[in-house]
Amino acid sequence: SHTSSPDSQMPYGKVPVLYVDEKPLSQSVAICRYLGRVHGLAVDDPWEAAKGDEVADAVHDLLPHAAQMVYAKLAGDVEKAKMLATEFYTSTLPPVMRELDRRLDGREWFCGDKMTWVDVFAACYLSQLSSHHEGSLEAVPRLKSLVEKVVKLPKIEKWIRERPDTPM
To answer: Among the record's GO biological process terms, what is one (predicted)?
Structure first.
């Protein structure tokens, strides 16, 4: 008989973990990609899918920088939090936002001709990041439009309104 070890319940020793038929899937982007495929929010074309993965990875790469700001703030280190925020919103975030905006030139969605998990992933993270810094989406009108379109979808709007309040 096979007894599952605690490690098999939480691969890599951390959350998030999605359980599908009692089997764990770890890593947030992998979970989003899987859910996108299952729920028809993915593209079949391998190149378009790869370009979407690229967008998701670029957005996901912003999170450690944002986390540093949050941790400094939670630790009460106001000066460090302020310095990290200035660096993030002036140096780290703008080039990523500009590239994402450029990717939307002449197209409505990041990959393919329909909304995919990539659009939802990017819009949700970027709306949260930009909500802490007024006007950060102003210089990127195509990206701003995509973010607004996604977060105004009834079910997503409802989730954002009702979700637990967390630091990130």
So the answer is: glutathione metabolic process
